[in-house]
Each structure stands twice: as C-alpha cells, then as structure tokens.
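Running this now, will post back.
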Amino acid sequence: YKADIELMSNPRLLQQSFNRIGIDIGSLVSLEQENGDLKYVYLAPAGAGLELKVGSELVTVITPSAPIGAAMLGLTEGEEFNLTINQNTQTYYVLTIRWVN
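Update: finished.
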C-alpha cells in the first residue's frame, strides 16, 4: 500500500489531464447500467477496489488497468460502452464526469 499512497499523494506522479474533456485519471464518473442502476467510479492511478461512501452514494475506485477503467478512458458525457467479462456483456452510459485534483 505504500506505493499506492505515494501515487495518490504526489501530484507529480499523477498523469494530468489538462483538456478536461474525456475520462482520465482523476475523473469521478457516474454511469447508468442498461438495467437502470447507477454506478459511481473514481479513476485513480492506484487503490483499485476501495469503496468510499460519499453522501448517500458508494464510489468504487478503479484504475486504467481494470477492464472497466480501460473501456472508459477518453469517453465523454453521453457516450456508452460495452464491457464483456466471462461472456457476460454489460452496457454502460456515461452520465457525468467530474475531475478531482
């Protein structure tokens, strides 16, 4: 965990997204699943699997190396993507993107 904490606390080690258009490191994303459920994820350089309670919502920390993280990179609000894991395909719709520094 020491390396994860260093990555999360040292801005020079984080990839910076200056155009703030598409999903990148530091993005807090709300997704709607095809069944209507909402999912909130934070794309971080490390710390995958952590779950944080923000208000009444549960936010899952993911990284770009996770399948869902890789599928979301560069997408913008209003786009959708499919994710297939173990022959099960799920469609996600990007509702909102907020950037956390």
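Residues 11-18 have pLDDT under 50 and may be disordered. More later if anyone needs it.
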